[in-house]
UniProtKB/TrEMBL annotation:
<feature type="binding site">
    <location>
        <begin position="180"/>
        <end position="181"/>
    </location>
    <ligand>
        <name>dUMP</name>
    </ligand>
</feature>
<keyword id="KW-0545">Nucleotide biosynthesis</keyword>
<keyword id="KW-0808">Transferase</keyword>
<feature type="active site">
    <location>
        <position position="200"/>
    </location>
</feature>
<feature type="binding site" description="in other chain">
    <location>
        <begin position="220"/>
        <end position="223"/>
    </location>
    <ligand>
        <name>dUMP</name>
    </ligand>
</feature>
<dbReference type="InterPro" id="IPR023451">
    <property type="entry name" value="Thymidate_synth/dCMP_Mease_dom"/>
</dbReference>
<feature type="binding site" description="in other chain">
    <location>
        <position position="231"/>
    </location>
    <ligand>
        <name>dUMP</name>
    </ligand>
</feature>
<dbReference type="InterPro" id="IPR036926">
    <property type="entry name" value="Thymidate_synth/dCMP_Mease_sf"/>
</dbReference>
<dbReference type="GO" id="GO:0032259">
    <property type="term" value="P:methylation"/>
</dbReference>
<protein>
    <recommendedName>
        <fullName>Thymidylate synthase</fullName>
        <ecNumber>2.1.1.45</ecNumber>
    </recommendedName>
</protein>
<comment type="function">
    <text>Catalyzes the reductive methylation of 2'-deoxyuridine-5'-monophosphate (dUMP) to 2'-deoxythymidine-5'-monophosphate (dTMP) while utilizing 5,10-methylenetetrahydrofolate (mTHF) as the methyl donor and reductant in the reaction, yielding dihydrofolate (DHF) as a by-product. This enzymatic reaction provides an intracellular de novo source of dTMP, an essential precursor for DNA biosynthesis.</text>
</comment>
<dbReference type="GO" id="GO:0006235">
    <property type="term" value="P:dTTP biosynthetic process"/>
</dbReference>
<dbReference type="GO" id="GO:0006231">
    <property type="term" value="P:dTMP biosynthetic process"/>
</dbReference>
<feature type="binding site">
    <location>
        <position position="223"/>
    </location>
    <ligand>
        <name>(6R)-5,10-methylene-5,6,7,8-tetrahydrofolate</name>
    </ligand>
</feature>
<feature type="binding site" description="in other chain">
    <location>
        <begin position="261"/>
        <end position="263"/>
    </location>
    <ligand>
        <name>dUMP</name>
    </ligand>
</feature>
<keyword id="KW-0963">Cytoplasm</keyword>
<dbReference type="GO" id="GO:0004799">
    <property type="term" value="F:thymidylate synthase activity"/>
</dbReference>
Length: 317
């Protein structure tokens, strides 16, 4: 078994065995632990889980969305990526502009009530169409506020200026590789009220040694079944991209958590995943000569990914 995947599966088992039952913001309920760390040696292969199929192209388009500094879901929808829809949709259905059927608590109701699910799917289809085709609608309801892309590329200062944290950290890695200040933060307390979802992955730090670039992420809150597999692959990909930009090899990805939790409506899915035998990890290649700031989805190639089938589970909004 790959030690990389074992680190994730061990976390699942630990939370099932030791987790504390807690209420949460979504009113779903969780099993939770506080403080945990996983390490992924990127020389072993690209850490995309094999015990269930994880949609890599969605991870790529989301990461490129962050890197571009974009905060509007229109870019994601143009790449058939729906993973941020619910937060923008919530803003629409709670606005005075919305005049459709009641969508209160749509996250829970759509999983339990087939009749409501039909109404929800219809309204979501209308919402997506409007985001893609109506510039004014997209500007009003597609933007998620000062989320990751904004903080990474245009952090607001008290002087009314912006800081491109990602560009600055890459310049620092290139010109002062052994600095202990290769840090990007997404947690800006002043901007939290304007964000659709406050950053779960709050800050990350790079480390250079022996010609390799490593990255450590601090994640304040981790949805272990749905979110964390994306986070692992996303930050591993970011490490690959920046290592290539800086003429380094990928080293380790270290994933450090605050509250790591399994939602109570994901328990059966986690048990199913734990019953599966991990397979060999895939490999990743990135087109030569492409800057991290200009990279497109087709420049990134995942090879030999042969996972078990996907496991569906509802998103807690």
């Amino acid at each position: 078994m790959s030690m990389s995947e074992k680190a994730y599966l061990d976390l699942c088992e630990k939370v099932l065995a030791e987790g504390t039952k807690k209420d949460d913001r979504t009113n779903t309920g969780t099993l939770s632990i506080f403080g945990h760390q996983m390490r992924f040696n990127l020389a072993e292969g690209f850490p995309l889980l094999t015990t269930k199929k994880v949609p890599f192209r969605l991870i790529v388009s989301e990461l490129l969305w962050f890197i571009k500094g974009d905060t509007n879901i229109r870019y994601l929808l143009r790449h058939n990526n729906n993973i941020w829809n619910e937060w923008a949709f919530k803003k629409w259905v709670e606005s005075e502009d919305y005049n459709g059927p009641d969508m209160t608590d749509f996250g829970h109701r759509s999983t339990k009530d087939p009749t409501f699910k039909k109404d929800y799917d219809k309204q979501m289809a209308i919402f997506k169409k409007n985001i893609l085709e109506d510039d004014d609608f997209a500007e009003k309801f597609g933007d998620l506020g000062s989320v990751y892309g904004s903080q990474w590329r245009a952090w607001k200062t008290t002087q009314g200026e912006t800081i491109d944290q990602l560009k600055e950290v890459i310049d620092s890695i290139k010109h002062n590789p052994y600095s202990r200040r290769h840090i990007v933060s997404a947690w800006n307390p002043e901007d939290i009220p304007t964000m659709a979802l406050p950053p779960c992955h709050t800050m990350f730090q790079f480390y250079v040694a022996d010609g390799k670039l490593s990255c450590q992420l601090y994640q304040r809150s981790g949805d272990i079944f749905l979110g964390v597999p994306f986070n692992i692959a996303s930050y591993a990909l970011l490490t690959y991209l920046i290592a290539k930009e800086c003429g380094l090899e990928p080293g380790e990805f270290i994933h450090t958590f605050g509250d790591a939790h399994i939602y109570t409506n994901h328990l059966e899915q986690v048990q199913t995943q734990l019953e599966r035998e991990p397979k060999a990890l895939p490999t990743l290649s990135i087109k030569d000569g492409v800057s991290v700031f200009d990279v497109e989805i087709e420049d990134i190639d995942l090879k030999n990914y042969d996972p078990h089938p996907s496991i569906k589970a509802p998103v807690a909004v």
